[in-house]
Amino acid sequence: MAKKKTTFSFADMQKTMGVISKKAGILIDTDITERTYINTDIYMLNALLSKSIYGGVSDNRMTVFAGPEAVGKSYLCYNIARNAQKTGKNVIYIDTEFSIELSELTDFGIDVSPEKFMLIRSNKVEDIKFMMSQFLDTLKQEKIAGNEIAETIVFLDSIGQLASNKEVNDAIDGKNKVDMSRAKAIKSLFRIINADLGYLNIPLICTNHTYKCFTKDTEVLMSNNSYKNINNINIGEYVKTLDGDKIVENVVDFENSTVMEIILDDGEIMKCTKNHKFLVNENWSEDENDSCWISAEDLTDSHFILAVSE
């Protein structure tokens, strides 16, 4: 007699996948919950981030505050850290700029006691990647074992000050070479930690600098060797850069910025913000703080512009 066939149901699939996911540290989400937020203490910003003046940054996602220097990005982080502690979260603060002191943080109402706050100082992206990947893997193993993870929030202030080992070693050796490792290491850092942070339900708040802008009618060389005005470039298109073709990941419109006019010897006029970087040395480095890059406000008629920082 032929054996009667049975159906391996979707419920069976779910059970099997559940066993596998626990062993692998993969999250299968079955709980229907409302997203919760951490107050920034700025009502308009709360509304922009969460559609409510009483909201704020998501308490289980990554949020990046980007803007020019000295506009209060770190101040926002301090507000969020204080309010996160009020909800019961502990704080891990990675200071890449070596710019804050524990004694100053107490002025913002932050509890810096070792039981609730950890200040980490480093600007080596490889070191931070190693530290965070090892740390998060340890927490994952604890969660897989069925242990509760203390509620925590991580800050990275700022991305812009992260340096690569190659960049530092080249500076020590007096070399002025292209450093492609920094950008790759930063991308790798976020690829590695983002999923683990999500699995562990740990929010990450980052700051970054933005200061390089051309006006909307500036033409940009695209990957197909055509030119398009900045205001006509769309996310997902590719542009030419010194580092090959790059995809456009975001388009940001800044209002009320001071614009300079730069007149070249052939009569061409370029309009940009005063801090936009121009390449004036053919032995260029990706590090825009290098002497081969000059801000628009520092250009003189003795400089020869080789390229513009994208």
Can you characterise this structure?
This protein has 310 residues and is of the alpha/beta class. The chain folds into two domains: 33-209, 3-Layer(aba) Sandwich (Rossmann fold); 219-250 and 257-308, no CATH class. The chain contains seven helices and 16 strands. It has helices spanning 10-24, 43-50, 73-86, 102-105, 125-144, 165-172, 181-200, and strands at residues 37-38, 57-58, 62-67, 90-95, 117-121, 152-157, 204-209, 219-221, 227-229, 238-241, 244-247, 259-263, 269-273, 277-279, 293-295, 307-308. Strands 3-7-6-4-5 form a five-stranded parallel sheet, with helices on one face. A three-stranded antiparallel sheet has the order 15-14-16, with no helix packed on it. The chain has a two-stranded antiparallel ribbon with strand order 1-2. Helix 5 (125-144) runs parallel beside helix 7 (181-200). The longest helix has 20 residues, at 125-144. The protein is globular and about 90 Å long. The N and C termini lie far apart (74 Å).
The proportion of strand residues reads 15-25%
Structural class: alpha/beta
- Largest beta sheet: strand ordering: 3-7-6-4-5
User: What is the number of helices?
Assistant: 7
Q: Would you count the extended β strands for me?
A: 16
Q: Overall pLDDT, averaged?
A: 83
How far apart are the termini?
A: 74 Å
Please give the domain count.
2
- What series of H and E elements makes up the topology? HEHEEHEHEHEHHEEEEEEEEEE
Rg over CA atoms, rounded to whole Å, is 24 Å
Q: So what's the CATH class of the largest domain?
A: Alpha Beta
Tell me about the biggest sheet? 5 strands, parallel
- CATH structural fold name of the largest domain: Rossmann fold
The CATH superfamily of the largest domain turns out to be: P-loop containing nucleotide triphosphate hydrolases
How helical, in percent, are the residues? 25-40%
Low-confidence stretches: none
CATH architecture name of the largest domain:
3-Layer(aba) Sandwich
Shape type: globular
